[in-house]
Amino acid sequence: MREFMLTLHLRIHDSVTALHRAHAVGDDDLASAQAGEIQGLVEIAARHGIDIDAGYADLTLAG
């Protein structure tokens, strides 16, 4: 389970980084796709009872 948690955290981190990059270059379609990915990963974490410090959910709406 530890490897799953680490992978999930890393995927969220990568998606958040990509979201910020997309916003920086004004690519709204990519930003929307990344926000959806983050939301999906947060939901996966919640289904498995993984604490992700509740810090990622708000990022899907941030610009």
UniProtKB/TrEMBL annotation:
<protein>
    <submittedName>
        <fullName>Uncharacterized protein</fullName>
    </submittedName>
</protein>
